[in-house]
Amino acid sequence: MKIIPVLDLLDGIAVHAMRGERKEYRPLKSVLCPSPDPLKLARVFDSQGFDELYIADLDAILGRNEDFSVFTRISSETDLSLMVDAGINDLGKAERVLGAGASRVIIGTETLTDLGFAREAVQALGEDRVIVSVDLKGGELLSRSEEIRSMSPLRLVEALEGLGVARIIVLDLAKVGSEEGANMGVVEEVLEGTGVEVITGGGMRGIGDLESARGLGVSAALIATVLHTGKLTSAELESRGFL
Fold first, then answer.
1. To pair with 79 at 20 to 30 A between CA atoms, which of 40, 133, 139, 158?
2. Domain 2-239, what fold?
């Protein structure tokens, strides 16, 4: 299981995400870097041995702004592969994000209006370049689509698998930044009931949670707060075989 650090970007800087309450997000204060500048933070992750970075472009997700130049700078000035959630719900936007330097695009159910777009994206871009994020809040699915909201998480993932999606993220926004542990009940249910590759995150507390996720068969874990507070270091991750 690999570890993927996370950057949440709002107004062009990295912010501390907390339980999905975006009005409360503040500039990130990190022991890793004195600045919330995303490029500087990405360089730190690169220097520590991480090879992939998850970016949530909150401006794009909220429909405020589409400036993907930061992806270009990070991809050109580091060796990090980028997986990016930018509120993608059409092929044009997906192609612009990939063209700006992302290696993989994330289609989040939060902004998805049509489940069929997942199939369209996989067919047009390839299954290796598309990840669907099963976005939850307090265990309930988040989506603009009534069809998706009416499903259980497992039923949704079964449908996505049938549409050709090979890799998903299970992310409960109510857990993000909380250090209360991820929603592993849903993760376990999905791993037992489908054949998709599962990435998880949101609320990871430390090595114990990561070991539990690895034991379940999770392919990667997204972490942020425990890295930025210094509760978990790249050296510790390396010593446990996560880097």
1. 133
2. TIM Barrel (3.20.20)
> Which two tokens mark 79?
């060796």
Alpha-carbon distance 50 to 48, whole Å?
Answer: 6
Does this model's pTM top 0.85? My answer is: yes
Break the chain into its structural domains and give their ranges. 2-239
Residue of 107, 94, 119 lying closest to 144 (CA atoms):
107
- Burial class, 212, CB count within 10 angstroms (exposed 0-12 / middle 13-18 / buried 19+): middle
Report the candidate in 6, 115, 95, 96 with the shortest Cα–Cα distance to residue 58.
6
135 token code pair = 């976005």
Q: What is the pLDDT of residues 78-113, one digit of tens each?
A: 999 999 999 999 999 999 999 999 999 999 999 999
Only one residue has tokens 């980028």, namely 82
